[in-house]
Design brief:
The protein is an all-alpha fold. Helices cover 59% and strands 0% of the residues. Bound molecules: protoporphyrin IX containing FE. The site of protoporphyrin IX containing FE has 24 residues, from helix 4, helix 13 and helix 14. The site of protoporphyrin IX containing FE (HEM) has 24 residues, from helix 4, helix 13 and helix 14.
Amino acid sequence: MEVHYHDYLQLDKILNAQFPESDRHHLPAHDEMLFIVIHQAYELWFKQLHHEADSVVTILSKPALNDNSPELQTVVHRLNRCVTILRVLVHQIDIMETMTPMDFLDFRDMLRPASGFQSWQFKELEAKLGLKFEQRHGKEYYTAQLRKEHVAVIKKAEGNKSLLQFINSWLERMPFLKAGADTSFWDHYKKIYGDSLAEAEKNNLAAFDDIFYGQPSAADRSLSPPACRAALFIMLYRGYPLLQLPFQLLNALLEIDEQLSSWRYRHMNMVHRMIGTRIGTGGSTGKDYLKAAADKHYIFREIAQLNSFLIERRKLPALPAEIEKQLGFGLV
Ligand code: HEM
């Protein structure tokens, strides 16, 4: 049978899936249609983000990903697609904000206790990317409003190895300056870094030791010291051909966090404008809950933190000739 646009896209289902509560109550509220459609659009994009994240995890879960292979390019390409989708999600709030607080009040009470708080796809995505249960604001609370089967989905994602943990394994496999090798490079680096610190920043040296040489099992950390050394090395020497894609990968993760955070802040401000200091339909403290989650839920914060340990480019230690050769295009 010929494929037809209408069937292929299952438009019968999608276009017949909007049932305003205000219609059911015979209290017409024009803007409820917008409210439903925009949430559905978000959920579809969340689905696509899962599709991309799953594919990236599948590639990274291979025991030996060659940084010189097309696979790493695919990872970077798909993560950048996630960034672009997230940018659109941030902008969609503009459309939501064409609804005024009075328009919202026309149907808001009919929604209780439904809330975006019950978006299991959103929470599953956070977990899949690497947000741990221990790092969540309110701990158990975040699943309090979910159905049992949706809690199970999120717990499963939390139990699986996350994207951030796969990134950790990938970084640990980086072949340059591995543990046990000559430590003189990092000793030298630490000295230059220490000399670059202002008096009030000298504590950073203790943090340096902790992050790059501390105990790898710290419960609140996903990146081990060898992985952090590899990531810093990539950031510092990203100009070398072999490190360009790895650098783009790390950068894409930071961009994902930044876009997620932009979304959280825009959503929070919209909520404040829409309902002021009233509690949410999901029963949370509303804006205060959202602010705490926005402040806490940075997923790739350990990568962002590494930027505190950079030094000026002109002070970078010259690399041993052997490593420099490996990082180039293989010229003799
Ligand atoms: C008039 C528009 C909106 C209002 C007033 C609003 C309000 C709220 C409030 C108060 C919360 C906190 C939980 C609660 O007590 O309900 C919340 C959470 C949430 N909302 Fe919205 N929301 C709106 C639009 C949206 C849209 C369009 C989305 C897109 C999917 C969305 C997704 C979420 C998500 C994912 C959470 C959970 C955030 C987290 O736990 O960190 N919201 N919303």
